[in-house]
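User: I'm curious what two different proteins look like when written out as structure tokens. Can you demonstrate?

Assistant: Sure. I'll show them one after the other, since each token string lines up with its own sequence. Here's the first protein:
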Amino acid sequence: MALTRDDVVDAAVDLLAEVGLEGLTLRRLARDLGVSAPTLYWHVADKRALLDHVAERLLADQWRVSPPAPDQDWADWLRDRAVRQYRALVAHRDAARIVAGNRPTSASLPAVEQVLGTLVDAGFSPADAFSSVQAVGNLVIGSAIEYHAERERPSDGPVGPDGHAPAPDARAYPHLAALAPVLAEHTAAHDHEALFRHGLDLMITGLRARLATPA
């Protein structure tokens, strides 16, 4: 059976889960597929092109975009979409790093058009709609990268009997010391989606204000 681009992308996604982004090379991918490396160039021009297709596959559910329901607020629709993207990126190893800097493939253009059109219909100019989508996307990707980095970070420094780092000196760092009980209950790794949602809410509040303010 002839090798297809879908075969190549499927194998790349599996290899990514096994060895991470650094281990995902065209040479290793060709070996796993049982073909020569030049054979892959019939399907992907280079590794960056391959990663664009892998990014599309990892976010496949996100490219099937439905417009807001008739009674759904554009901001609620945008927030829901961003949260689903965040959850998709934290669910796959190195997914956020791959999506960062990727370019839409032809298969994803209808979804991009739908998102931009939704914001334009809400009252944004095309330029503002594009910038807003980019800004929200950057928040999603950056938060997902931080999530994985936090999970991979080894525990360091002394910890107290409760398993948490000792509280800072209240005389030198009064504000940090006041936060100690909160940080003890909600570590960044444990409650990272809440932190992401906080930033997303701030951004959407800003978008609402921008839309309500005449240019």
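Here's a second, unrelated protein for contrast:
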Amino acid sequence: MERLDQQSRMESREPLGNFASVEVSRFFVERPGGIRLEVYAQGRGDLLVMLPSLGRGAVDLEAIATPLAAAGFRVLRPEPRGNGASVGPLEGKTLHDWAADIAAVVESQNAGPAFIVGHAHGNWIARTLASDRPDLVRALLLLAGSAGKVPADHSGVPISDEIRAVIERCGDTSLSDAMRLQSLQQVFFAPGNDARAWLDGWNTRLLTLQTQAQKRTPVDDFFAGGRAPILNLQAEHDVIAPQRFARVLSDALGERVTNVTIRNAAHALLPEQPQAVVAALLDYLARFR
């Protein structure tokens, strides 16, 4: 494995504590069909795999991965196919294809079922994995995740075309920073939080292709998340996964789902309230130890 300089990768972020001893290493997982997945790894212990948001990469999860590794977990952050050094066919795919990549990462560890953390779009891949391969998933920890459905008595859709258009502007790096900042503040960050944290880190092509994969995948393919226990960690000011829909999963799936709300955060969540997210994750994970 290749060792990386943890301090240099963290210096642009507000630290959560002194975790200089938690080394970051990198390895690759090969799959048939020309698929090669880049994976960042930290820590020892129960396996925990983290999946980033739409059109974004593993670096988004670093600030919470480090304290989780320090708490006694083997934390893996695979780069999505099409981002970083992860490669493979991208056209005409569904969420099942990206979920199969994560299944290969879990199986590469020979460590039994894993805790799967999915942020935003990553929550759909996490639930697809749990539906396709329940044997590989110990529990789902969903961060700012849209359920994909709305209550039966609601006539709308979870994410409107208007909101989707704003999301696409956020990741369109051909637009001006000013326009993208306005879009980021509108859909990803709570009032008063600094949206500049997400001006960088976008992969516009990946965003487009993952959005297409969402649309090709029937919601019922992944909605239930297999049979895994679920932490549904919602953000107070989320307009993409709004609070009025926060109980869709628990109403449908019952006691498998634990709902928690993070204050002063929106859909970006991780750059807004990393300490609160880590505390909520560790509190939930404690029940499995």
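A detail about the second structure: The two ends are 28 Å apart (CA to CA).
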